[in-house]
Amino acid sequence: MFIQTESTPNPATLKFLPGQDVLGSGTADFTSPDQAAPSPLARAVFAVEGVTGVFLGSDFVTVTKEQDVDWAHLKPAILGAIMEHYQSGRPVMEGATDSGHATQDGPDGVIVEQIKELLDTRVRPAVAQDGGDITFHGFDRGVVYLHMKGACAGCPSSTLTLKMGIENLLRHYIPEVTEVKPVAV
């Protein structure tokens, strides 16, 4: 098994590509070892000292490290944990994965569906290339609330991505959108 790695815009995060499906569809975001209970793969990666976050995508694993830990020391141990997991035959997840977007009914239902469609077709594929995900959290009085996951969470360029990229895109196609804000979940 050969696992490739890619840097992300977030210097504290590295993207690992095992060359096969990780989740296939959906995502799973773990910001602590306690949250990783449903994923044998995430538990194995968290067992590496210095890991602070594990994000599972369709065909990649994004790992976030402590600021004072060097990737040169951490990367071999993470590669070993991922390889060992895949060779064990255990599942990546025990149970269901997160489908992504929050649901929102009510008078803004049509606008919410347009927002989700644009996120799914224009935003999420590009963000996945950088080892993260952005999902819909809510819409209220023109403001779209988005949850940033994986490499996007804590990324130095995330504010620029939200304001100059996603906000401009949504405002262009959906006049009811006036602003985009991140939420912490």
Report on the structure:
The protein has helices at 40-46, 71-88, 109-129, 158-173; strands at 4-7, 13-17, 28-30, 51-56, 61-65, 132-140, 143-150, 179-183. It is α+β, with helices and mostly antiparallel strands. It has two domains: 4-88, Scaffold protein Nfu/NifU, N-terminal domain (Ribosomal Protein S8, Chain: A, domain 1), CATH 3.30.1370.70; 109-183, Fe-S cluster assembly (FSCA) (GMP Synthetase, Chain A, domain 3), CATH 3.30.300. The strands form two sheets. It has a five-stranded antiparallel β-sheet, covered by helices on one side. Strands 6-7-8 form a three-stranded mixed β-sheet. Helix 1 runs antiparallel to helix 2. The longest helix has 21 residues, at 109-129. The N and C termini lie far apart (35 Å). The mean pLDDT is 88.
CATH class of the largest domain: Alpha Beta
Supply Rg.
17 Å
The name of the CATH architecture of the largest domain is 2-Layer Sandwich
Count of domain modules: 2
What is the SS-derived class?
Answer: alpha+beta
Give the termini separation.
35 Å
> Which strand order does the major sheet show?
1-2-5-4-3
- The CATH topology of the largest domain is given as Ribosomal Protein S8, Chain: A, domain 1
Shape: elongated
**Portion in beta strands:** 15-25%
Would you identify the regions where 5 or more consecutive residues have pLDDT less than 50?
Answer: none
CATH-defined superfamily of the largest domain? Scaffold protein Nfu/NifU, N-terminal domain
Give the strand tally. Answer: 8
Profile the largest sheet.
Answer: 5 strands, antiparallel
Element-by-element helix/strand order: EEEHEEHHEEHE
The percentage helix is 25-40%
How many helices? The count is: 4
Could you tell me the mean pLDDT?
A: 88
